[in-house]
């Protein structure tokens, strides 16, 4: 299961699809050269179950899960890096009294019986934003949930990958070697299935420990609001997704940008039709090479150094056609250098554009860092960075403290901030707004 380093609307402090996993520091009092004994390897308590891949088998699984009690640990495996779609290729479930079930959703007529069997049960997921969309796609939607990754962040754990939390809290090591496998493979190899089943093996126990820790830290209500917010999670729709092409920033001129956009869109259409991840058809580097050179025919295109990939030659006609269309575009049809956004400008420009807003933002950012440290949680979970930028660029007009505080709370709520977040940060943000009005001496 991939890790996500942030809450559903927070911005990552690191790369969006990976969380750093540095080596743990030695225990206090241990000599620098001492090595702690390795934690025992997590094993399946009930052995590896058979994969359920028929409608009849699904009904049997549903009967067992419905007859069991307590929350349901659930996980899904996708084929990220291999397939264009985000569909689930394996769904793992575990519930006390029912054991672990591995469901192959691909050959199923419908998973509606599974949704019915889980009615009213709390779902336990790790990094729920990774799995909720693909589960919703097959008709599975929770009415309540507990996210162990997000709980770990609220509790201030520096590393919140599932394997790290299991080792830190439960004292057992997990296998991680098949996280990037092509789960669309059939039949699925036994070692992969063993890995997948282990992902739900300890989620119920992990949840119990974390519930106690949240209560002890006074963060139970924070977690409740966060988990409730997750129920409405929808993946962000990327505007101008082609601009995320690696190396596109090196292109000079709007026509080269237009070429990159046209090639990206042609690749995306082919990838969607074949259900293959776009980079396996044509790498980003090849798009940038072709957009820079703007070759006019197949021979010149394929002769470019750096223009390669599985689909470079196979779909050459599509690439040439895309470049031809761009050459014929008028200037006003070409994309702009900078993306058009509905938010505030980048904070690095604020000092020149609005010095007061710049002072507000810097003071507010410092306050958020201090508050996050006091409450032992990542600053992006205290308040989404985009919310802070929007608020400090255009705060409520009033400067009467009580009215300003109420205006800030309302503005944060309109962005999607949870009540616990607004309660913690409003006082500091009022101070940042009022303090910025005073010219520095």
From TrEMBL:
<feature type="compositionally biased region" description="Low complexity">
    <location>
        <begin position="10"/>
        <end position="34"/>
    </location>
</feature>
<protein>
    <submittedName>
        <fullName>Ribonuclease D</fullName>
    </submittedName>
</protein>
<feature type="region of interest" description="Disordered">
    <location>
        <begin position="330"/>
        <end position="354"/>
    </location>
</feature>
<feature type="domain" description="HRDC">
    <location>
        <begin position="253"/>
        <end position="333"/>
    </location>
</feature>
<dbReference type="InterPro" id="IPR051086">
    <property type="entry name" value="RNase_D-like"/>
</dbReference>
<feature type="compositionally biased region" description="Basic and acidic residues">
    <location>
        <begin position="339"/>
        <end position="354"/>
    </location>
</feature>
<dbReference type="Pfam" id="PF18305">
    <property type="entry name" value="DNA_pol_A_exoN"/>
</dbReference>
<dbReference type="GO" id="GO:0008408">
    <property type="term" value="F:3'-5' exonuclease activity"/>
</dbReference>
<dbReference type="GO" id="GO:0006139">
    <property type="term" value="P:nucleobase-containing compound metabolic process"/>
</dbReference>
<dbReference type="InterPro" id="IPR041605">
    <property type="entry name" value="Exo_C"/>
</dbReference>
<feature type="region of interest" description="Disordered">
    <location>
        <begin position="1"/>
        <end position="41"/>
    </location>
</feature>
<dbReference type="Pfam" id="PF00570">
    <property type="entry name" value="HRDC"/>
</dbReference>
<dbReference type="InterPro" id="IPR044876">
    <property type="entry name" value="HRDC_dom_sf"/>
</dbReference>
<dbReference type="GO" id="GO:0003676">
    <property type="term" value="F:nucleic acid binding"/>
</dbReference>
<dbReference type="InterPro" id="IPR036397">
    <property type="entry name" value="RNaseH_sf"/>
</dbReference>
<dbReference type="InterPro" id="IPR002562">
    <property type="entry name" value="3'-5'_exonuclease_dom"/>
</dbReference>
<dbReference type="InterPro" id="IPR012337">
    <property type="entry name" value="RNaseH-like_sf"/>
</dbReference>
<dbReference type="InterPro" id="IPR002121">
    <property type="entry name" value="HRDC_dom"/>
</dbReference>
<dbReference type="Pfam" id="PF01612">
    <property type="entry name" value="DNA_pol_A_exo1"/>
</dbReference>
<dbReference type="InterPro" id="IPR010997">
    <property type="entry name" value="HRDC-like_sf"/>
</dbReference>
<dbReference type="GO" id="GO:0000166">
    <property type="term" value="F:nucleotide binding"/>
</dbReference>
